[in-house]
Amino acid sequence: MGVDFGDMVERQEISLKDLFGKAIAIDAYNAIYQFLSIIRQPDGTPLMNSRGEITSHLSGLLYRNTNLIEGGLKPIFVFDGEPSKLKTRTIQERNEVRIAAERLWAEAKKAGSAEAIKFAQASSKIDTQIVDGAKTLLRHMGIPCIQAPSEGEAQAAFMAINGDAYAVGSQDYDAILVGAPILIRNLAITGRRKLPGKNVYIDVNPENVELDSILSTLEITREQLVDIAILIGTDYDPGVKGVGPKTALKLIKKHGAIEGALAELGADIENFDAIRDVFLHPDVASDYEVKWREPDENEVESFLCGRHDFSEDRVRKALERLVDASDRRQRTLDQWF
After folding, report:
1. CB neighbour list of residue 293: distance below 8 Å, 6 or more residues apart
2. CA-CA distance, 304 to 18, in Å (whole number)?
3. In the chain, what are the domain boundaries?
4. Which of 99, 207, 328, 332 has its CA 20 to 30 A from that of 90?
5. pLDDT tens digit string along 287-315?
6. For the structural domain made of 1-218, what CATH number should be given?
């Protein structure tokens, strides 16, 4: 799930209050995947309706977004489009991992093993039905949905650069590589969470990561940060074996760019120029519209309760909170005019 250089970057723990009034362009696939992974029964079985359709993501989108909007945030969900052909290897590998996880989950569940939940989470996948359901619910809730031509995080970063969003919401640091000025992590999982495979709970808070701060602290350019990521390994390349963040940083600072680093290592990364270009000049759309609307209570209730068997009482309580929060937001906007 993106490049792993978390140890290299400074992450500032914040609260939702720090994001009051801010529009956050959320990587939709990233958030949905988290909901699909986390919202499960003890044996790993996801929430489902009477027809066997998975609804874990719908539960996460309803309740988490209600919390965010109550906190004064203005979420925008940005959905992936067609992935780059350079990502084919990674997609194939992930599919193989999921297939293996499904088999291990079935075996663990049959044996009553506590590891069932771990394998179940690894088997999570997003399909067209899940994406369509997510978009339908979000629109009924009055939350903008933006369709990216390619990577959602790149489109979200473009919107933040343009000033249409304060930050990108995602767990993946790739958002920084594609130019997001600010990355907010843990938005979808903020709160008290149980550690996987352990009877231990921790408090998870949002984290603020700033591109300029990273570049200033490491004394590098964004182009060099991208080269570091390519050496470590990204969704588009496996990187160089044995090269981690510290070594990659040292090599790029020594040589200035990936070409010299590869020469010293005696290594080769296929299509590194094209990979670099994907990060520095991603495929994005400029003809998007960001507009929040009032929640349609009847449509939300019909969709969740009528079609997906959600509890009417719980959905109505969530809707009361959502509508109240949306009204407060509108009253705040009206004060400016």
Report:
1. 142
2. 31
3. 1-218, 220-282
4. 207
5. 999 999 999 999 999 999 999 999 999 99
6. 3.40.50.1010
